[in-house]
Structure formats: C-alpha cells, structure tokens
Amino acid sequence: MSAKMCWTTVSFFLLFMRNAQGFIAPRLYEKSIVSCNAFEGTVVVCTGPTCSRTGGKKALSYFEELAQSGSVTVETVSCVSECAECAMGPNVEVRAKDAKGPFYPIKNKIKSEDDVKNILGIE
Predict the structure, then answer these.
(1) Is the pTM value of this prediction over 0.90?
(2) Which residues of the chain fall short of a pLDDT of 50?
(3) What is the Cα–Cα distance from 117 to 61, expressed in whole angstroms?
(4) ∠ CA(107), CA(108), CA(113), 5° rounding?
(5) DSSP H or E stretch at residue 51
(6) CB 13 within 8 A of CB 31
(7) What is the pLDDT of residue 4?
C-alpha cells in the first residue's frame, strides 16, 4: 500500500475595497491550494475582461493542456465571482467530483503553469 502525499498552502491577505457607501473597508481573503493526488472534477476558468487582462487566457491554455481527459473537465465563464473577486484574478472555480453546490471554492491569481499543476494535483 502506498502512502498519499498531501499538502496545503494557505496564505491570507488584506484587500482594501470601497463598499456600496463609498467607504474603504478592509476584507480578509484566504488563498489556499490543496493538493492530494490528481484532481477529479470541473475547473471553470474566468475569461471576463479583468481576468483575461491579468492572465486568464494563459491559465485556460495551461488547464486545457494539462487536464487529464476523462477526469477533469475544463469550462469557461465570463465571470466566476460576479465581479466580487475580479481584482484578485485570474480566478478559477474548482468543482471537485463529489462536491455539492451551489457555491464552490474560487482560487485567485492562477497565472502560472505551476499554479495550474497545484490545482490539478500534478507534481
């Protein structure tokens, strides 16, 4: 029997945004990447204007290239977070095979091939 190698990378950061009343309010965000063997499910890559400008199309090409056929489906949407997380893009919604919706984790700043490999569980 082989042992599973799993790791989690978690980082926290503050983002200052204007709320509906125009006040600047700090919001704590978490970025975590969990990798434990190969990912199975659906990844939804944001191709909205902000995410596209910050590297969403390149991230999409990495996902399409690296996703294992049959176990990972790659989809696109014009905005995964309905603009709530645009400043932290490119954003990717991660829907694990057995996860129940309607809200799925959104991973931020997915720009490099290594970021995509972390999500897909590729070493």
Answers:
(1) no
(2) 1-11, 32-35
(3) 12
(4) 85
(5) helix 49-53
(6) yes
(7) 40
